[in-house]
Amino acid sequence: xxxxxxxxxxxxxxxxxxxxxxxxxxxxxxxxxxxxxxxxxxxxxxxxxxxxxxxxxxxxxxxxxxxxxxxxxxxxxxxxxxxxxxxxxxxxxxxxxxxxxxxxxxxxxxxxxxxxxxxxxxxxxxxxxxxxxxxxxxxxxxxxxxxxxxxxxxxxxxxxxxxxxxxxxxxxxxxxxxxxxxxxxxxxxxxxxxxxxxxxxxxxxxxxxxxxxxxxxxxxxxxxxxxxxxxxxxxxxxxxxxxxxxxxxxxxxxxxxxxxxxxxxxxxxxxxxxxxxxxxxxxxxxxxxxxxxxxxxxxxxxxxxxxxxxxxxxxxxxxxxxxxxxxxxxxxxxxxxxxxxxxxxxxxxxxxxxxxxxxxxxxxxxxxxxxxxxxxxxxxxxxxxxxxxxxxxxxxxxxxxxx
Length: 403
Fold this sequence. Notes:
It holds the Pfam family GDI. By secondary structure, the protein is an alpha+beta fold. The protein is 26% helix and 26% strand. It has an 8-stranded mixed β-sheet, sandwiched between helices. A 5-stranded parallel β-sheet has the order 11-2-1-15-21, with helices on one face. The protein has a 3-stranded antiparallel β-sheet with strand order 6-10-7. Helix 1 (14-25) runs parallel beside helix 9. The chain is globular. Mean pLDDT is 84; it is low at 1-8.
């Protein structure tokens, strides 16, 4: 405990585990402590399924009695990886892929008028999509060509638009794209959760998001998303192994008694009467409640089914995005579905997770449009997670929190 650590990580979230692995590769001395007995926090894989029913403090009215099932690696938070995204590049750079196997998600869909449609992201798909009328298809095709050809270093590709001053709303207006097309472009291709992006000056970020979706789709064809076999909990475990190889130290099931501060600087962490000293502390909000403030809440509903989602061509995995405007909300609703094909469920079983930002006093009513897409559901688990933001960035105290 007298050893001085360059980085000291307190974490129960996937991002802390990833961070500790990366900084270990960069030659930093890392000690990662976690009050939990498992990796990943809300991104953890829960095995066997019976353990999921024991998380009574996490779920609201969990169903009972627990079924006697084997071959489950269930999770309570799903996140898909963009095939050409930064995290995948990070996995390749750090060679964490030696510990992981991935499988492509079979479909990407968007919700419109109580129905779901495959997301068109290429010229050919746009022309064949039933999501748009004939004239809209042509206009959307021209927009996709613009996105493909756009180069922020080549003014010839701007087409009389200023990438720094014009908004994305101006771009959509130039190509005469209607509200529904704008909806699935901004929310299912660019993956924005709200419409705030439309009126922000500069549209390069949105164009790059659309390009990322297209590039990721081109890698595997079915969808732009990847998911690790055996669940998202494999990611933090992979980075934990990586950190250990480069000298990092992990302590699970380790209580945190106190964050030690001297002269306004965080200098260590006290646990079970001992102090581990460090130069910098990185942690999730639950470890520093006095340094964060609650800014919202997320509802997640885990649904266990014995069938694929309708209108997805019997896909064993998919993502469905319900744009805010389609259900009179301020933020989108996400449905992520995986199955036995990803080794997270028994043969013939499917697990879908609905998630969205809470906007009313009746969160379960907010996600009814998503639940309607999944019926019938065998078992349902409802949970709520608080959203936090730091009250300061930690530059002066040398402490940062991942919220």
